[in-house]
Amino acid sequence: MALEHAILVSLLEQPGSGYELARRFERSIGRFWTATHQQIYRVLKRMESDGLVDAEEIGQDGRPDKRAYSVTAIGRSTLVDWLREPVQPEAVRHDLAVKIRGAAFDDEAGRTALIAEVVRYRIEHETTLNRYLTGERRDFPDETALDTGQRLQHVVLRGGIAYERMLLDWLDDVLTTLRHL
């Protein structure tokens, strides 16, 4: 998936400035697609020159003007074409898994350091899971009251929650294994 597609989806859900898009990526889209502020602004500029988005200058009192982006008909058509293309399964690349396998060739001090790394990694994913669960309670308190777009957003979030839970279970298994070597 290209960053352009994630931006088009986000702007169709709600037009906004580059800053607002970056915040959405941090808050929700980042659950499945990450991008830096610089990447978002660079891609928005290219998308505007390609006619996929329009930008409107909006004056702000006491602050610099902001550019609010919205999707053009060409942008919507581009997204729809992409939505209808088949998706290939992603190849899994997991540095930590390679390190765990490599621990067979390290000494006890190295395995002790690896345990500390797995614990740190686990804490990060536990924090992510808690952030997802907080967002779910905040954004989707009543499944029966959701519109189509919200229901689709929620099912993506539930996938992120399930992934984080699976990863935490696996990390617990890794820690048990490493501690019993």
Automatic annotation (TrEMBL):
Domain Transcription regulator PadR N-terminal residue range list: 7-79
Family matches, as InterPro entries: Tscrpt_reg_PadR_C, Tscrpt_reg_PadR_N, WH-like_DNA-bd_sf, WH_DNA-bd_sf
Domain Transcription regulator PadR C-terminal: start-end pairs: 92-178
Protein name (record): Putative PadR-like family transcriptional regulator
Organism annotation: Actinoplanes missouriensis (strain ATCC 14538 / DSM 43046 / CBS 188.64 / JCM 3121 / NBRC 102363 / NCIMB 12654 / NRRL B-3342 / UNCC 431)
